[in-house]
Amino acid sequence: xxxxxxxxxxxxxxxxxxxxxxxxxxxxxxxxxxxxxxxxxxxxxxxxxxxxxxxxxxxxxxxxxxxxxxxxxxxxxxxxxxxxxxxxxxxxxxxxxxxxxxxxxxxxxxxxxxxxxxxxxxxxxxxxxxxxxxxxxxxxxxxxxxxxxxxxxxxxxxxxxxxxxxxxxxxxxxxxxxxxxxxxxxxxxxxxxxxxxxxxxxxxxxxxxxxxxxxxxxxxxxxxxxxxxxxxxxxxxxxxxxxx
Length: 244
What we know:
The chain is mainly alpha-helical. Helices cover 53% and strands 2% of the residues. It has a two-stranded antiparallel sheet. The chain starts with 5 loop residues before the first helix and ends in a 21-residue tail after the last helix.
C-alpha cells in the first residue's frame, strides 16, 4: 500500500474496491486463521496472542519490525510483506461478526494507539485522548514518515471490519491535534490527502473537511496579515453540534 495516487486510491477504497470480489475466494482464510490464533504470521513465526505478549509496549520492535503490520491490520490491497494475504470481503464479514476476532482487533488497535502516543478513552464511542507519554511518542512519530502509511492502513482496516466510528474518532482527534493544538504538523499532508478522505461516512467526512478548510483559510489569512477566523475544536458532547 503506497501513497502514489491519492485520489484514485481513496476513491477505490471508499467505493469498496469495485469488481475485486470476483477475484477473491472464500478459501482465502489466512487472516481469519491468524486472528483466531490458528496460524503463525510470516516471516516472524508468531501466533497473534504470542505477538501481543512480545510486542505490547515494546516500542523498539513495533518500530523496527515491518512485517507484522500487514497481518494485524490486513486491508484489501497488497502490502510490503508478500507473505501476508490481503483481506478478502469474505474475511471482512467474518471479522465483523466474530466476537473473538473483535476482541483481538481492539487489543491490536490499543497497542498501536499507545505506540503513537494516543489512548482509547471510550471503547463504545471510539473517543481518543493523549496517552501519558505522548510527548516522546509524538516526537518519534514526527520523525518516522513510514508510520503515516501505517496509520492509513489501520484506518482503512477499521473501516473494513465494522469499526468506521473508531476511524472517524481517531481522524477527528488527529485533526484537532494538528489544527487546534499545533501538534503533529508534519502529518498534515497525510491528514488532508488520506486520513480524512478515506472516511466512508459522508456526513462525518464533510464535517472534518470543513474544519480543515477553515484551518487552511486561517493560516492563509495569517500569512497575508489579515484577521483570521477562529478554529473551534470539535466538541462531541455539545448538543448544538450536528450529530454524525
